[in-house]
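Hi L.,

You mentioned the student needs an example of a multi-chain input paired with its predicted structure. This one should do, with 980 residues in total across all chains.
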Amino acid sequence: MGSEVEKKAVFDTESAKEVVKELRDSFVAGKTKTYEWRRTQLAAMLKMMDENEPQIVAALSDDLSKPELESSIYEIAMLKNSCKLALKEMKHWMMPEKAKTSMTTFPSSAEIVSDPLGVVLIISAWNYPFLLSLDPVVGAIAAGNAIVLKPSEISPATASLLAKLVKKYLDCSCIKVVEGAVPETTALLEQKWDKIMYTGNGRIARIVMAAAAKHLTPVVLELGGKCPVIVDSGINLQVATRRIIAGKWGCNNGQACISPDYIITTKDYAPELVDSFKCELERFYGKNPLESKDLSRIVNSNHFARLLKLLDEDTVSSKIVYGGERDETNLKIAPTILLDVPKDSLIMNEEIFGPLLPIITIDKVEGSFDLINSSGTKPLAAYLFTNNKKLKEKFVEKVSAGGLVVNDTTVHLAEPALPFGGVGDSGMGAYHGKFSFDTFSHKKAVLYRSFAGDAAVRYPPYTAGKLRLMRALLGGSIMGIIRALLGWSKP
Amino acid sequence: MEKDLGREITEIRECYRNGNTKPIAWRRSQLQALRSFLLDYEIQIFRALNLDLGKHYVEAFRDEVGILKKSVNLALKDLKRWSASTKAKLPAIALLSYAELVPEPLGLILVISSWNFPLGLSLEPLIGAIAAGNAVVLKPSEMSPACSSLLANTLPKYLDNQAIKVIEGGPAVGQQLLQQKWDKIFFTGSAKVGRMVMSEAAKNLTPVTLELGGKCPAVLDSLSWSWDKEVAVKRIVGAKYGSCAGQACISIDYVLVEKSFSSTVVELMKAMIRTMYGDNPKESHSVARIINKHHFLRLKNLLTDQKVKDCIVYGGSTDEDSLYIEPTILVDPPLESAIMAEEIFGPLLPIITLDKIEDSIEFINSRPKPLAIYAFTKDEVLRKRMVSETSSGSVVFNDAIIQFAADTLPFGGIGESGFGKYHGKFSFDTFTHYKAVARRSFFTDFWYRFPPWNNHKLELLEDTYGFDYFGLLLVILGLKRSRKTFHVN
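Structure written out for the whole complex:
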């Protein structure tokens, strides 16, 4: 064999076309449809994780300085659970669902069959590059599709590890990883897919959806937004603070779509809250958080500069009550809390996606719902800490978001019985658990009629009598039908 | 005009924001009002459909009015159940103490409907959108003007004008509407316009449902019993010519039969057409008109090619003045001809003959995915293959079009025939956001969720997330040590 110098070919429209053609041929040949194939792929994915955990953790550390525990739990363990659940439930998910039939199609029987869509494109994000790449893939495999995965180039170590591992463990004729940046993604988006799932930001999402429109391709868009946390008084402040910290800095240092973005609390309660934060943050990350090994770094210098711009704005920098330290060489920003930044500041008008936490104070906690709704956009998640039952009810009634959590942050992500997705600007479609299977399936209606029992009323020549009978049939009442048959009802 | 439109949309948005459309009582009152409209204006509706499309009133009832009444009654009956939150089933020891799915309206909906079932395709989505608590703008097709103005002039008398508006107009108005910001757009029409609608929607990240069309094939197996043959042919002929003269997205576009069976089929069809429509179908007033001159000429042109004309075995006559085209049957027109390449959407029925009926699967699969596939067969093996080896919005055995009336079945397409679905509860779902709501108590806290990190916490978290309760217990009791070691930091 000798030594081969692998030359990386340019991935252009032609290459994209070829990839899609190969996958489509595999799909049409029925490779991905069998239960066996789906099962073996998912089992192989589990094996892949078992045998490569250190490498995965290392890649995530390279890309994000992600603490090993975050990688092991939030990326690997969660993905393993996803695989295991799919393996356990897939047979059941794949079964057709019987549908009741009514008078209008009597006699008949019906069912809803889950068909794979075909060849799907999954474009993932850089902040949970392993999980957000493979979790959708689990759903797509379970539903019987052929897949192209395009991981984010902003997390290159994970992207190339994914390419290597997928090639080694999964069926390459049906599942491929395409690495690259804008040109490669554009080439992929020009092709005809049966579904595209995109995780990322609103700007690119518009481009993805516009490209999909040309081929009438349905899309799932998992985006973000400013996830607010409302903190009421009369709660277990220590637990609440810890949970907010876990959701904010404990999740990739605030670089997560469901991370608490900002806090709303009352003017009266704010000082207590700030003190609690100071205490717990120090307990978690020590006196020199820039040196803590338990915090991810900022992913790259672009985002670092973006965050500093938010922090260093004149009207904002004076509002820092904790933190604010930065280390440009290592791309680190310390957990920072700000109090009462102006409403029109940059930091309050774009998704922060970093370790800065503004606290906005209002007079009465009930005012927080209007404040959240005044932004005009719906976030991916919204959180409330309270023991007040009425406040909880109002929260659920008034705040629209992808998902809501009361008395915690981010944990709903781990519950597969809940659909995970956005609404409005935070996205469309949902996945996790069976929702992943459904999102990559076509629910095909199948109606079985027999030749017996033909209702002459349906056919011409049309008469008033037929109209009477049809009225009764569509109206569904037995008496009505009998009356019509006997000619006793009005035409 | 544009300023007015912008103002109207702002008004509706305000109305929605004030929460007017959310209460169940409001939704119920609107649905009841819609039901009254269908009852009070039945005659006018029949008249409008006759004016626009020459539809016989029995056909109008069967395909539009009757279906709508059924749908609105179902929505009223199940409204409470549909809009109730549902508990999510959580594992025994979960991070969450309680989780539920809360249905929420999306907000402001734009419904753009089509001309062939101008009442049905306008009001069926409207029923779903109202049931789900949304504010709605309906733009009926300008190509069916009598129905469009009936809706525009009469619905305001029945429905809440601040929350539900009918806006009439053509492509220019459609364009203006598309440029506003909606929470969902529901479009019924052609694939070409569907692409444009979705492109516009992309600018605002607006989710869409596209109900498009395609060439829906009917596979007619060689049936042996004469009763079965009669019924099959009756249903095919009734579905093709009897539903808006073939101008329906779920119309049978063409039929596939075995060569040996085709002459029997043709004879049976000719006889059936005569039974249903008499010797002069035009006089029966039971065949709808072609919607307008443009489509009339389009259909007429499908028959001008001599090679296609030679394949006509029945019908073929057309009358431009009355926009009437006779129920027409062709046998084996060339597959490259326009009549076999585009969606016909008219009363011309090509019969394509195959060596064996199983070849129909490949024939269908080599073409874009249709909204429906109809298969008339008693062969169990063929049935199973039809379902598992083809892809379409839906599959119907031994009948056609009737799936439209089944409200427990999702109605929608795939690929070129569209995406999204509605009818019955699916209509409610399509205009709803299912919001996940999770609660935790302050009591149960997993202390190992928080840094500073160490091996012990890692092991605990793994077991928790893996729902491995026994393992968890062992670790807590100190009987199981972490097998993990830090490599990286």
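You could point out the following to them. The mean pLDDT of chain B is 93. Chain B touches chain A through 108 residues (CB under 8 Å).

Best wishes,
N.
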